[in-house]
Amino acid sequence: MELRIDEAQLDMDAPDLYEDLREEDMLEILGLMNHPRDAVYMSYACSTKCYSVKDDRNYLYCSFGVAPIEGTNIGSAWLLGTRRLPKIKKFFLQHSKEKVSDLLDGFDYLTNFVMRTNTLSIRWLEWLGAEFNDCQYDNYLSFILERK
To answer: Please, which residues bridge with residue 118 across strands?
Structure first.
């Protein structure tokens, strides 16, 4: 199986992602009082940079990107995965730091929220060098990713 990272295509990738969204991502979205379909489509639509990880059969594993926060030089980073995402751990980790660096271009830092119970995402964000803080949402942490 050969994997690649492509520029995301809203019309092709969003439906695939929504149909096979990881439970952890769905719970995180619902906890912030959003509908998963709306969150998936808005993530693609609002992003200035947006990528998808696919294999040679065009199966989607995850999409990620960054959307500018209006009136600031801060980016809202996001990553949503399909249930296939755990199958590509090595590839995912090999390319994460490089892609986060790319997402940081043009921003002072990246931020967003993560559910406290989403330990896999928190461990990955820690590995990337994220700093965490309490936030206004119960059971969530805010995180900041800066260029190191």
So the answer is: none
Residue from 30, 38, 28 nearest 79 by CA: 28
Q: In the chain, where are the structural domains located?
A: 3-105
Pairing, β 109-115 against β 74-81:
parallel
Structure tokens at 2: 């050969």
In angstroms, the CA 34 to CA 31 distance is 7
Distance of CA 124 to the CA centre of its chain: 11
Please give the span between the terminal C-alpha atoms of the chain, in angstroms, as a whole number: 33
pTM (predicted TM-score):
0.94
The CB-side HSE value for 17 (13 A sphere, CA atoms) comes to 29
Considering the segment(s) 3-105 as one domain, its CATH architecture is 3-Layer(aba) Sandwich (3.40)
Cα dihedral sign, 138-70-36-22: negative
For residue 103, what is the enclosing H or E element?
helix 89-104
- For 56-105, how does the pLDDT look when each residue is reduced to its tens digit (9 = 90+)? 999 999 999 999 999 999 999 999 999 999 999 999 999 999 999 999 99
